[in-house]
Design a protein that fits this description.
Length: 260
């Protein structure tokens, strides 16, 4: 799968995948029909139809294993972003315990972190270029500021402790979303799916080699199933890329418009 395909809307992605799958099935049908003459044709017909169910089952298992990885990565990405947003919201809610300049500074740092995440980290994660070497300057400053605060009451002491915990949670959640942003279905898995699908299509074409019309129907049905499964995986493969990607909307809700 190439990068440009992942960035397409799902409708266009589906159009490309279906077109490529049908073209592949048509090519297999044409080649087999050309070769199905004389001894080769009789050899094709000698293949038992019972070979198709095991091939289809193996393909289904490969799709299932791959889909589990993809949905797991997507779930991890959503969880990391939600954890980060919840932790930052806790910082905003606890900041008034200190009031004055400290409260304003904490809120400003949280806002700056969110703006940096949306404008810099999200595009980098979409390109799979985000790394843990990217320092969250605003969060680091917020943590340092909180550690330097001198609580005067038990309420401020408790608030300071909770703010530190929330900032550490936000930092950990940020690390997790950057790590998962680099997750993808590798070329070995894509190749395995393609080869298994091709083997099943070839088997169908050979068994139906004396019935061109029936072969077209059978190949079309299985090719549709292949295209649907590939579209399902490709549309969710990159957690931060594409129409169905994880968005920073929940982070933007941490500080409502107008909140300093």
């Amino acid at each position: 799968m190439t990068e440009w395909l992942y960035r397409l809307p799902v409708s266009l992605m589906g159009l490309v995948i279906f077109a490529m799958t049908y073209l592949g099935a048509a090519a297999i049908h044409g080649i087999v029909q050309t070769l199905a003459s004389g001894e080769r044709g009789r050899a094709f017909k000698a293949i038992s139809p019972g070979i198709i169910p095991p091939l289809g089952i193996i393909y289904g298992l490969l799709v299932g294993f791959t889909a589990v990885q993809v949905w797991g990565d997507l779930d991890r990405a959503n969880t990391a972003v939600n954890r980060e947003a919840s932790a930052l919201r806790a910082v905003v809610l606890l900041a008034p315990a200190f009031g004055g300049a400290s409260e304003g500074r904490l809120r400003a740092l949280v806002r700056r972190h969110i703006e940096d995440a949306v404008s810099q980290e999200w595009p980098a994660m979409a390109r799979r270029e985000a790394t843990l070497a990217m320092t969250p300057v605003a969060l680091a400053e917020a943590l340092q500021l909180t550690l330097t605060l001198e609580p005067r009451t038990s309420a401020q002491t408790a608030a300071q402790r909770e703010i530190i915990t929330s900032l550490e949670t936000a930092l950990d959640a940020r690390r997790q979303r950057i790590i998962v942003s680099r997750a993808t279905v590798n070329w070995v898995k894509w190749t395995t799916l393609a080869v298994q699908a091709a083997c099943t299509l070839i088997a169908i074409a050979m068994i139906q080699s004396d019935n061109a019309r029936g072969a077209r129907f059978a190949l079309g049905l299985f090719a549709t199933g292949v295209a649907v499964s590939i579209l399902l995986i490709a549309a969710h493969n990159r957690p931060f890329v594409g129409e169905l990607s994880v968005r920073p909307d929940v982070l933007l809700q941490v500080l409502p418009p107008g909140l300093p």
